[in-house]
Amino acid sequence: MKNENLMRSAILEKKTLNWIAIILITTIFLIFKEEWSWSTKYPKELIVPISDWINFLMEKFVNKFGWFFLNISWVLSWPINAAQWLLHSLPWVVIIFLVTFTAYLSAGLKLALFTLCSAFYMVLIGYWEESMNTLSLVIISVPMAVSIGFGLGVWGHFSKRAEKIIMPILDIFQTVPTFAYLLPILLLFGFGTVVGLIASVLYSFPPMVRNTILGLKRVPANIIESAIMSGADPKQLFWQAMLPSCKKQILLGINQSTMAALSMVIIAAIIGGTADIGWEVLYYIRKAEVGQSLVVGMVIALMAIIIDRITTGFALKSDQDKKLPAFQKITKISYLSFAFIGSVSLFIFATFFEILDAWPYDLSVWVASHINHLFDAFVETFRAEIKQIKNYSLFFIMLPTKIGLQQAVSPFTWGFQLETMHKILYFGSFLVLSLWLLKKKKNEVFVFTLLFMIFIYTGLTQMPWPPLLIIYSFFAWQIGGYKLALGTFIGLGFIIVVGMWPEAMLSVYLCGIAVVFCFIMGTSLGIWAAHNSIVSAIVRPINDTLQTIPLFVILIPFVMLFKIGDFTALLAIIIYAIVPSVRYAEHGIRNLSSEVIEASKMMGSTRMQLLFLVKIPLAMPVIMLGLNQTIMYGIAMLVIAALIGTNGLEQIVFIGLTDGNMGKGLIAGISLAIIAMIADRMTAAWSVKLQERYTSNPAD
Q: Using one digit for the tens of pLDDT, what is the confidence trace for 608-625?
């Protein structure tokens, strides 16, 4: 045991010495930053013009095979047009009846009443036709995505070689920004609703694949053995034994694919030009009309919540349906009869009463003007406070992180000039603290303190790229081994050589601040909710709402309050990305072993000791999974924030989309995907290390 401790201590000292060497290299690069201009701005003559190559190849490909994809677009337009014709032909009262009845079958009376009120809201505000245009894309794209996802999932389960190919492809599809999906689709299929359909299918089939593979893997071995012993052939084994056993997981996959499809349909409206809800929201956001934006945005939110609750309800009921008695199966047939008779009756009524077919324009409720007045009054009343919040956050947090204290501190921003004495105090205090930490053998905190001192003074976007590449790669090696380090080095190296490094650091800066804030505040709130049932009851529906509301809607209040810019994007990212930190922290604390908690109490631990020395360390692996998801959510929202004036990779993707520059937009999208995958692998490896530490040696 003593030898093991000495070996561990030696390893730690070696790692610390390596970090000190890296910090010295970083310092040298900072000292000679002006002379070594290539280290801060990668030379243009060395940039690999991959984007130009992509544009050239794409142009040749479209010229030769464009006719084929246009024909596919023409074929796919038929089911979309048919769905739109059907939804517009049926009176609104019939559609509301069918959706409400489906909600009742899914989850009972409460959801049925909510669905009825929500659907009627779309009628009442005069956006029924636009809602049906959005719904038509969803009801065509979801079956296609589910079919493709189910087929690939089954293939991946039965073929390990196929799974090894499929899983990395899914990672790429789920990390490449949503706007980047639209670039090649736009060039191949042209403008129109088909763009939304294809983009929706590509974006929404990965959750179905993952859930199908997961569900089939979790089929109990005794079920498979029983089926084989009963003489089932491979087809019977799959369809009659395995598939019913994983029905719940597959239905959850359908739920996630449906939500993803709805999300992408809204985004695709940017270039689709379809008269749907996504286009209306975007139109009013650009006009800065807060009332109309919120009124129309609520349609998206309500539609998402209804679809989410209905599909979730059917997934949760799947286990109960396996053992239905005969009379209940007959009742299912009567449900279909009731739906048919009710629909026909309401259709006939609608032919006699026009109000049930087309809601009169004069009876629509126009609440947007009232919201505008309330909003204007709020802004007028709290104008000074709003400006103060924005300025303090911008000048004291965002600018120092972005460009460093040496450029951010000035009489205009901080009220004084950064003099030599201030620099001595800054570096002196950090160095004294670092030496004290080193003396106390807090090696990891010692390294973090020195790096923090350098980063905040210099600024993330002002750091030379060679030391940053070394720092990120060495950190990856420490937590995940040489494979993760090599992948990080190659991935970040790709971003450098294609000339996207400055924009990548802008994206990392904005998303990084949001993730740190979300992790600290979200984890704290989750821990509080785990110990307080009232807080948990309040937080849970808020989290549910934030996860079902499409990303566009989250932008609306912040754009109207703070206008466009980095601060507005930061707030939108925080609101969306904080949910996983809250959920995972509460889940991790609530599901700790009761025996360990009781043993700690019997040893005399106080409430604070129990929390900080027992509960949080044991729940840390789960909490780290929350950090992983917070990063992924933050990057997803960052891409949407391109609409409100950010300047990172996400903006290049958006510009590439609007200008038709596929090469540049796709390279920026791939760069964002690389950052997302590196962050994902790092946090996953970190979580595994924590899991191993606390399971092998709980005393740590």
A: 888 888 888 888 888 887
Q: What is the pLDDT of residue 108?
A: 84
Query: Would you say residue 671 has pLDDT above 50?
Result: yes
In a domain, residue 448? The reply is no
Give, as one character, the DSSP assignment of residue 241: I
Contact predicate 532/269, CB 8 Å: no
Cβ-contact 619, 588 below 8 angstroms: yes
Average pLDDT over residues 248-268: 77
In a domain, 4, yes or no: no
Q: Categorise residue 549: left if φ over 0, alpha if ψ from -120 to 50, beta otherwise.
A: beta
The region, left, alpha or beta by phi > 0 then psi within -120 to 50, assigned to residue 351 is: alpha
Task: State the Cα–Cα distance between residues 279 and 480, nearest whole angstrom.
Answer: 44
Domain ranges, residue 286: 75-376
Q: Domain holding 633: CATH number?
A: 1.10.3720.10
What span, in angstroms and rounded, lies between the C-alpha atoms of 531 and 590? 8
Question: Tens of pLDDT along 635-647?
Answer: 888 888 887 778 8
Contact (Cβ atoms closer than 8 angstroms) between residue 100 and residue 349: no
Reading the block at residue 540, the tokens are 């849970």
Q: Tell whether 638 is covered by a domain.
A: yes
Cα 220 from chain centre: 32
For 380-416, how does the pLDDT look when each residue is reduced to its tens digit (9 = 90+)? Answer: 898 888 889 988 999 999 999 999 998 899 888 888 8
Rounded CA-CA distance 336/334 in Å is 5
Where would I find the H helices in 459-531?
Answer: 465-497, 501-531
Task: Calculate Rg over the CA atoms of the chain.
Answer: 28
In this prediction, residue 7 carries a pLDDT of 47
> pTM for this one?
0.81
Cβ-based neighbour number of residue 185 at 10 Å:
21
Tokens at 89, concatenated: 């032909």
In the predicted model, is pLDDT for residue 700 greater than 60? no
The answer to whether position 150 is within a domain reads yes
CA–CA gap between residue 176 and residue 196 (Å, rounded):
17
Q: How confident is the model at residue 6 (pLDDT cuts 50, 70, 90)?
A: very low
Which one-letter DSSP state was computed for residue 378? H
Mean pLDDT estimate for the chain:
83
Domain boundary among 343, 376, 409: 376
Q: How many independent structural domains does the chain possess?
A: 2
Q: What is the mean pLDDT of residues 477-499?
A: 93
CA angle 693, 696, 700 (to 5 degrees): 50
Q: Give Cα 515 to chain centroid, integer Å.
A: 12
